[in-house]
Design goal:
The protein is 40% helix and 23% strand. With 279 residues, it is an alpha/beta fold. It has 2 domains: 175 residues, no CATH class; 69 residues, Alpha-Beta Plaits (2-Layer Sandwich), CATH 3.30.70. Strands 2-1-3-7-5 form a 5-stranded mixed β-sheet, with helices on both faces. The protein has a 5-stranded mixed β-sheet with strand order 4-9-10-8-11, covered by helices on one side. Strand 9 and strand 10 form a beta hairpin. Helix 3 runs antiparallel to helix 4 and helix 4 packs across helix 5. The protein binds the ligand C=C(O[C@@H]1C=C(C(=O)O)C=C[C@H]1O)C(=O)O. The site of ligand ISJ has 11 residues, from helix 1, helix 3 and helix 4.
């Protein structure tokens, strides 16, 4: 049983609860005010024409601003989670979309990721394979798909299904704020139909087909700031997923692959904002 509190403490408690009610009402009113801006934003962005209202570069910079200005005892996890739900829901209000997830490596982490980054209003649709996710996104007007970005050496080069010009492309890497012990820290790539001028190109992703993988290849790529982040066996050799700085020209990227790798075909499969890491 809790101890009865003094009359003085009870009065102070009532004051504090009054403060919390005032702040809650103000935050709610601000959210309603934020939602009123959306109607005009829909017209200005012509979202209906482009199919997707998702602007990953803008979202990455908003999330980075939140991380930079965060202070006090409230966990950053909570501030980040609240704004992910706000931003994703407002994006969905502009043009409804679904999140298709490749759960071939397990549903739990993908569901956590989808719920943390897109909230519960945006529908979550699990699929048994990457191919099914890419096909579903391709058929949709503005849906997104999520894949684990840490697949490393895998049996399936899912990124090969993104090489066609009209095929979906990678548009973001989540979480926007990376740190140890992130509550939904599974790294995922987000794909959507090509965003054209709305894409952020700080990091470019290439699918590369090489005949073999020489020992010095990773170091050669690191020399130009690039990294192999996925690889899988493919007909005639290996299919790689390479992340390279947006400032690096495709020719310079191709030249960085050692000759011993054999003839390399490089195709851009998407881009995303620079990773933002907090220790
Ligand atoms: C509001 C916009 O659209 C989307 C929603 C955002 C938000 O609610 O803040 C931010 C970026 C977009 O993904 C926008 O483009 O500014």
């Amino acid at each position: 049983m809790s101890q009865p509190i003094s009359a003085e403490a009870a009065a102070r408690l009532a004051d504090l609860r009054g403060e919390i009610d005032r702040i809650d009402a103000e935050m709610h009113a601000l959210l309603i005010e934020r939602s009123q801006i959306i109607d005009e934003l829909i017209t200005v962005k012509s979202t209906q024409a482009s199919g997707s209202a998702f602007r990953p570069g803008r979202e990455a910079s908003m999330m980075q601003a939140i991380a930079r200005r965060h202070t006090g005892s409230l966990p950053l996890d909570t501030a980040e989670g609240i704004w992910r739900v706000i931003i994703a829901t407002f994006t969905w209000m502009q043009a409804p979309f679904n999140v298709h997830a490749d759960i071939s490596s397990g549903d739990g982490p993908m569901r956590d990721s989808a719920r943390f980054h897109f909230g519960f209003t945006v529908p979550y649709l699990p699929h048994g394979s990457a191919a099914d996710v890419i096909a579903a996104v391709g058929r949709s007007a503005g849906d997104v798909g999520i894949f684990r970005a840490d697949s490393g050496v895998s049996s399936l080069a899912w990124w090969d299904a993104l090489t066609d010009a009209a095929a979906p492309k990678i548009i973001a890497r989540l979480p926007f704020i990376e740190r140890p012990d992130h509550p939904a820290g599974t790294p995922v790539f987000v794909v959507s139909k090509p965003l054209a001028d709305a894409a952020v190109r700080e990091t470019i992703l290439y699918a590369a087909r090489v005949e073999r993988w020489p020992e010095n290849a990773a170091a050669a790529l690191a020399g130009v700031g690039a990294e192999v982040i996925g690889s899988a066996g493919a007909s005639g050799g290996l299919s790689l997923l390479i992340a390279a700085p947006g400032a690096l020209a495709p020719d310079a990227m191709a030249a960085a692959l050692p000759q011993a790798a054999g003839r390399a075909a490089l195709v851009e499969v998407g881009s995303h904002a620079d990773r933002f890491r907090m220790t």
